[in-house]
Description:
Distance between the termini: 41 Å
Low-confidence stretches: none
Number of strands: 0
Largest sheet: none
Structural class: mainly alpha
Number of helices: 2
Order of helices and strands: HH
Radius of gyration: 16 Å
Amino acid sequence: MKTAILNYGVPEELEAKRIAELKALSYFERLERLMAIIEVSYMFKTAKKIQSKK
């Protein structure tokens, strides 16, 4: 897996890079990414909130 790199630049260029990257993925890789997003979303939805003592 590649190391994470912060991207700085014009938002339109960054969006074009992301779209090109997604188009290069196979159907299965796209599905894996979607499932990961759904899992994280579900974990956030069902997580118990911890109230801070202030």
